UniProtKB/TrEMBL annotation:
This is T protein of photosystem II. Keywords: Chloroplast, Membrane, Photosynthesis, Photosystem II, Plastid, Thylakoid, Transmembrane, Transmembrane helix. InterPro entries: PSII_PsbT, PSII_PsbT_sf. Belongs to the PsbT family. GO terms for cellular component: cytoplasm; photosystem II reaction center. The lineage of its organism: Eukaryota, Viridiplantae, Streptophyta, Zygnematophyceae, Zygnematophycidae. One of its GO terms (biological process) is photosynthesis. The keyword Ion transport does not apply. The gene is psbT. The chain crosses the membrane at residues 6-23.
Length: 36
């Protein structure tokens, strides 16, 4: 079970970091289509 928790935390952290970097370095990318 610990492996699953560690994997979940790792994926979550990487996802958040990637999301932050992606939206911070390229704010002119037309990805905000679903945002209203």
């Amino acid at each position: 079970m610990e492996a699953l928790v560690y994997t979940f935390l790792l994926v979550g952290t990487l996802g958040i970091i990637f999301f932050a970097i992606f939206f911070r370095e390229t704010p002119k990318v037309p990805v905000v289509k679903g945002k209203k």
